[in-house]
From TrEMBL:
InterPro entries: Citrate_synth-like_lrg_a-sub (IPR016142), Citrate_synth-like_sm_a-sub (IPR016143), Citrate_synthase (IPR002020), Citrate_synthase_AS (IPR019810), Citrate_synthase_sf (IPR036969). It comes from the Bacteria. Keywords: Acyltransferase, Transferase. NCBIfam families: PRK09569.1. Coiled coil: none annotated. Belongs to the citrate synthase family. The keyword Isomerase does not apply. This is citrate synthase (unknown stereospecificity). It comes from Paralabilibaculum antarcticum.
Amino acid sequence: MKKTLKQTLSEKIDKQRPRTKKLLKEYGDVVVDQVTIAQVIGGMRGIKSLVTDISYLDPEEGIRYRGYTLEEVIEGLPKPKGGDMPYVEGLFYLLLTGDFPNQEEVQQVVDEFSKRRIVPRFVYDVIDSFPTSSHPMAIFSTAILTLNRESVFNRQYQAGLSKKDYWEATYEDALNLLAKLPEIAAYIYNKLYRKGERILSDPNLDMGANFAQMMGIEKPYDDVSRLHFIIHSDHESGNVSAHTGHLVASSLSDIYLSISAMINGLAGPLHGLANQEVLRWLQEVMNKMDNKLPSTEEMEQFVWNTLNSGQVIPGFGHAVLRKTDPRYKLQREFSQKHLPDDPIFKYADLLYKVVPPILQKHGKAKNPWPNVDAQSGVIQWHYGVKDYDFYTVLFGIGRSIGICANIIWDRALGYPLERPKSVTTDMLEKIAGIKKMAEAEEN
Ligand code: CMX
């Protein structure tokens, strides 16, 4: 009998613990980074102050999961019969262990998810009680929060769980939650946009195919879902959603509290909500153009109008990346293969040509290139998911996979409560060696 994911993970954790312990005990005083005033005021950009082995974001190259590029991940993970995209469950295995699972190992995880997928009735009752004008991210976050009652970690912690075993209870919570997220998301979709008409899940399907089934969308939407969940799963630890998940979990809040919180961070327009903003922006242009494709000059004018009115161009720019996002590229390739003549794809592709030189000329954005959100909604739209408020929920399912993996490892390695230090403006002025503004004006 093959080892289970949990057994494999347990061995990896035993090997990793002494590495972290040694760094902390023997090299704890070694300086990693220095911090400038610009970084302190400017959202802590670039300060190396978090550790994760699950993914690393290179500004030029983009994301690597466990050292592998997205192409390598998609190439190396097992795929379901008839699918071009790999099992999402296999990605979870890779993120947790650093190893590519074989078919048998991935099947074990698929079965685990299938067993744990049933959502308690009280969660549906909470979802049902929301007005239909609510944003799906608020409902999604609340539904996850509601599941906190089920937490294995909380139960065991109350009973006196040893610190070295925190990760095991967290692992159980993570699997229980991840298995339910597609069910919850599809239920929210059907409540808001299909008058509650529900398509039940099929326990024999993998996560991507099952999600397509519950959304009632034909192939290749199963592959669209797999690709979507995989490329959105992790982007190292400093982005708002990942950082929020880690921060909240660091107080030993359970997975449900932590993932609900990270979903709230993802719901901001500068982060995950940008994918709905892209579609909203494109739709406005389409309406003004009477659905005709604008000329390059016309599109340039739309972009300048947005910038001149003091707004950002959604789907472009990034806090870390300085090149086109490989997640954007993968989705563009998918679109070129499956929906080359789609009008919205043509609009989005025209933006790819038009926006970067304009942002360069505008001179503010450090990165003029498109990010993941510039393409993801375009694909969803093509396959009939036109209620773009829902797009960030899809991002949230994917992102939960990476954050759950991170939180399990946080607990395994005993990372402590997060607590950076703040300073006052007076203190910064003193550090800078300048007089306070008021004093300078008086003199
Ligand atoms: N359009 C217009 N202006 C932009 C811009 C864009 N797409 N991207 C950055 N800028 C502006 C910033 O608003 C900032 O202006 P101010 O100096 O007036 O405040 C200036 O350029 C410098 O910003 P930056 O250092 O390049 O970018 P940040 O690290 O501060 O912010 C991000 C990064 C993503 C929030 C920003 O590029 C942005 O707002 N992009 C549009 C929204 C978006 O696509 N977000 C999704 C990102 C991916 C994700 O996390 O999901």
